[in-house]
């Protein structure tokens, strides 16, 4: 089964949300208290997804707000350097700062992220800075859930979704839940549900769908039966190394196995998965194959130090799919 996109547009994908900085522990396999050096990369889930998509050959654009400082300029320069259109990345004029994510790699299984996100520039994106002329030039609008956490970014995203729907741009919602940016789970649930119901494709982990539903121990079947009463045609629910499931409105269910890999750290899995999954869908591959591309891309990125710079090429993904063993489902 394939997802149909509008055929010709200048951009394949425009992402909206945060473009920030990751500071990844250079000395890993130890707690952050003992980490003395960190390496700087561009980060932020939607920026990572746009970078991954661009490296795979998609024409990508970005809507976001950057701090007027060295970090903001580094991000813009890096993203432009990998081929992303940065014309709609506006620069904050009110002294807000770039969001930072320090990563702790205690062991391959035990990773965490310490985020500095108070008053960050990306959450000050204003609805007036979201342009219909820009959005209508794309086939996909990729929305990051974190951009809904606070106003005015929240309204900017809601406007972008409306404009996408008005212009036949497919809305892909990556739940991307980061608890500390939200006032409460009740609030998250309200905005996640609102945007998920309007999206064409919703992607998230099982835990993130539980946040959307404001419950614990939800089931994939209940999630999709609710969402298929609304706009989504496809819902992708990820279960870490245990793989992922794509549910189509037609009733078909597709399974994506993870690939065995030498894990350095677990973060970056979701963003690399999303970029390669969307690349495959937009390149006309069926959902089964798109799941393989997503899983293979994640297997590569979790074996490397960064999320953004580690994003693979199509050749690397296809080679891994051809050669690598799949993780059995019950692991
Ligand atoms: N330890 C791992 N080894 C190999 N692949 C992994 C591993 N963890 C995650 N993946 C792959 O990355 C995908 C997304 O991972 P997941 O942890 O569910 O998302 P997120 O990073 O958004 O929390 C999974 O569906 C799987 O294919
Ligand atoms: O999203 C962020 O702000 C931090 C990311 O840049 C970081 O690389 C990360 O956590 C990615 O993890 P993922 O969501 O598992 O892909």
Structure explained in plain terms:
The structure is a single chain. With 331 residues, the chain is an alpha/beta fold. The protein has a single domain, classed as UDP-N-acetylmuramoyl-L-alanine:D-glutamate ligase. The chain has helices at 45-55, 70-81, 132-135, 153-166, 185-198, 206-213, 220-227, 269-282, 287-301, 314-323, and strands at 11-16, 20-25, 38-43, 60-66, 89-91, 100-105, 111-116, 138-144, 170-174, 201-205, 234-238, 244-248, 253-256. A 9-stranded mixed β-sheet has the order 5-4-1-8-9-10-11-12-13, sandwiched between helices. Strands 3-2-6-7 form a 4-stranded mixed β-sheet. The protein is globular and about 50 Å long. The model has no long low-confidence stretch (mean pLDDT 96). The structure holds adenosine-5'-diphosphate and the ligand O=C(O)C[C@@H](O)[C@H](O)C(=O)COP(=O)(O)O. The ligand O=C(O)C[C@@H](O)[C@H](O)C(=O)COP(=O)(O)O is lined by residues 20, 22, 43-45, 48, 101, 113, 267-271, 307.
């Amino acid at each position: 089964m394939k997802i149909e996109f509008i055929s010709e547009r200048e951009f394949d994908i425009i992402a909206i949300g945060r473009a920030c900085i990751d500071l990844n522990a250079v000395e890993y396999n130890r707690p952050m208290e003992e980490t003395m050096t960190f390496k700087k990369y561009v980060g932020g889930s939607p920026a990572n997804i746009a970078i991954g998509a661009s490296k795979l050959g998609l024409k990508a654009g970005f809507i976001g707000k950057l701090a007027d400082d060295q970090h903001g300029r580094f991000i813009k320069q890096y993203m432009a350097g990998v081929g992303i259109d940065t014309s709609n990345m506006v620069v904050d004029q009110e002294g807000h700062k770039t969001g930072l994510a320090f990563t702790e790699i205690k062991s391959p299984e035990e990773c965490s992220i310490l985020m500095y996100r108070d008053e960050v520039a990306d959450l000050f994106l204003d609805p007036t800075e979201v342009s219909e002329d820009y959005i209508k030039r794309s086939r996909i609008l990729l929305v990051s859930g974190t951009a809904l956490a606070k106003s005015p970014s929240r309204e900017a995203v809601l406007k972008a979704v409306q404009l996408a729907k008005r212009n036949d741009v497919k809305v892909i919602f990556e739940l991307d839940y980061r608890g500390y940016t939200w006032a409460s789970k009740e609030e998250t649930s309200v905005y996640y549900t609102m945007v998920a119901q309007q999206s064409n494709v919703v992607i998230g982990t099982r835990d993130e769908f539980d946040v959307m539903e404001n419950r614990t121990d939800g089931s994939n079947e209940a999630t999709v039966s609710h969402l298929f009463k609304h706009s989504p045609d496809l819902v992708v629910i990820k279960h870490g190394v245990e793989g992922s499931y794509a549910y189509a409105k037609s009733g078909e269910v597709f399974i994506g196995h993870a690939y065995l890999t030498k894990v350095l750290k677990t973060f970056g899995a979701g963003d690399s998965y999303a970029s390669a999954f969307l690349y495959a869908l937009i390149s006309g591959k069926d959902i089964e194959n798109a799941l393989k591309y997503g899983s293979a891309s994640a297997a590569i990125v979790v074996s490397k130090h960064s999320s953004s710079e580690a994003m693979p090429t199509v050749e690397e993904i296809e080679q891994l799919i051809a050669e690598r063993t799949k993780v059995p489902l019950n692991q």
